[in-house]
Specification:
Strand order of the largest sheet: 9-14-13-12-10-11
Shape: globular
Number of helices: 6
CATH topology of the largest domain: Structural Genomics Hypothetical 15.5 Kd Protein In mrcA-pckA Intergenic Region, Chain A
CATH superfamily of the largest domain: RNA-binding S4 domain
Number of strands: 14
Order of helices and strands: HEHEEEHEEHEEEHHEEEEE
Length: 250
C-alpha cells in the first residue's frame, strides 16, 4: 500500500506542477495497473489534461503526459525507439523477450525507464525515455552470449509492428470471460479468477466484472497470459451463438 501511495503522490505532484507552471510534465513508463490508478485521479484535476502514449499505437507500457487544458504550444513525448540486432547473424542465439529484458536491467536501470520490447526473428526493438538513449547506445553490447549492434530508429515508418494471430470462434455472449477463454484456449470458469482478482484490463482500465462486454477495437490485457484486440462480431449462428474475431499479440 505504501508503494501505491508514494506513486499517487508523485502523480499528483506532476499534475500540480503542470498546472502551476503552465508546462507539460511526464511520468515514467507505467504498467497497466499504474495507468489505471492515474485514470482514477482524473476527476481530481479537471484543469489538467492527462494523455498516454508508449511510442507506438496500442503500446502496453505507456507514459502519461500532463498539460493545462489551454496549452498554446506543441510538444512531444520524450520517447525514443532503439533497435537491437546481432553483429553476426551466423553466430547469434535465438533470443527471447526475457533475454533482452534481462540484458537491459543488468545495466542497473529501473524498469520504469523502459517501455515495450517487441521481439522478432533475430532482432528486437524497445522504447525508452529519451534521457536514457545515449546510456543504452554506449553500454548495451551483448545479450546473453550474442554480441549486438544497437541503433536509434529515427523514422517512425521503421518502428516495429507487433505480430498478431487471428483467432475465430463462437461464444454464447460477448462477455469478457468468454473472450478471454477463447483467446487463451481455456475454459470460461478458469478465467473468472483472473478477472475477480484484478488481473484483467481493458484499454488500460481495470475490469473486475465477468459480464463486462468489450467493444470492437478494445485491447484486453491479462496479467501472466498476454493481450489481444477484440476485433468484433462476424455473425450469429442458428443456435444464437456469436461468431467473434480476436487478434492475439504473439
Amino acid at each position: 500500500m505504501e508503494k501505491n501511495e508514494f506513486f499517487l503522490k508523485r502523480i499528483r505532484e506532476l499534475a500540480n506542477l503542470s498546472y502551476q507552471r503552465d508546462i507539460v510534465t511526464f511520468s515514467d513508463f507505467l504498467n497497466l495497473n499504474e495507468q489505471n490508478m492515474v485514470s482514477s485521479l482524473k476527476q481530481q484535476f479537471p484543469q489538467v489534461v492527462m494523455e498516454t502514449f508508449g511510442g507506438y499505437v496500442n503500446a502496453e507500457r505507456q507514459m502519461v503526459a500532463f498539460h493545462p487544458d489551454a496549452l498554446a504550444f506543441t510538444w512531444e513525448y520524450p520517447i525514443d525507439c532503439l533497435k537491437i540486432e546481432p553483429k553476426a547473424i551466423k553466430f547469434s542465439e535465438n533470443l527471447s523477450y526475457r533475454d533482452y529484458m534481462g540484458a537491459l536491467l543488468n545495466l542497473g536501470v529501473d524498469r520504469s525507464v523502459i517501455g515495450d520490447i517487441i521481439v522478432q526473428e533475430k532482432a528486437a526493438w524497445f522504447f525508452c525515455q529519451s534521457k536514457m538513449t545515449e546510456f543504452f547506445l554506449e553500454n548495451l553490447c551483448r545479450v546473453r552470449h550474442t554480441n549486438i549492434l544497437i541503433t536509434k530508429v529515427n523514422d517512425p515508418e521503421e518502428f516495429p509492428h507487433p505480430n498478431l494471430e487471428s483467432i475465430n470462434g463462437t461464444c454464447a455472449s460477448v462477455r469478457l470471460d468468454s473472450l478471454i477463454a477463447l483467446a487463451f484456449k481455456a475454459s470460461r470458469s478458469s478465467m473468472v479468477s483472473y478477472i475477480e482478482s484484478g488481473q484483467v484490463f481493458v484499454n488500460g482500465k481495470l475490469i473486475t466484472s465477468n459480464g463486462y462486454e468489450p467493444k470492437e477495437g478494445d485491447i484486453v490485457s491479462v496479467r501472466g497470459k498476454g493481450r489481444f484486440i477484440f476485433d468484433g462480431v462476424s455473425h450469429q449462428t442458428k443456435k444464437g451463438r456469436y461468431g467473434v474475431r480476436i487478434l492475439l499479440y504473439v
